[in-house]
Amino acid sequence: MARDYAAQATGSLKEPQGFTLIELMIVVAIIGILAAVAIPNFMRYQAKARQSEAKVALGGIWTHASSVMQAQNGTYVITSMGQLGYGVTGTARYSYWFAVSGAPAAIPGGSTAATPCNVNSSPAFVDATMSSYTAGARGNIDGDTTCDDWIINDLRTLTNTNDDVAS
Hints:
six-stranded antiparallel β-sheet, alpha+beta
């Protein structure tokens, strides 16, 4: 007992300070597990946010085609992209498509990236007649070979025909 008092008086016996190696390894393992769960979800949320570009642009195409072309011309059929009067601004991740003389044509300003997903071909169903149309968007939002395809029709039905986020 006297020895303990002497050690305390000189400060040679101290309480353990800091963390043990086992405690640090447990904390690192917990952080690793949380990251393994959180990172894929974060990447999926980013990809979903990128899809909003196509939704907004196709909504703009719908508004323009419905209000200008049908109201002024009485038809959705066009013979040049200039008649649509719609262009994409900024740096686009998607290419946008509307039928010109019965064949899908790219709207100027959209993406032209050819790898790893080729956005230079039209999504399915892009067409225009006197009384209806379907416009489309194709993009690569997560860097894989799968394209993300969207279409919108004259009834404003927006459809994701090939979901790159889910694959």
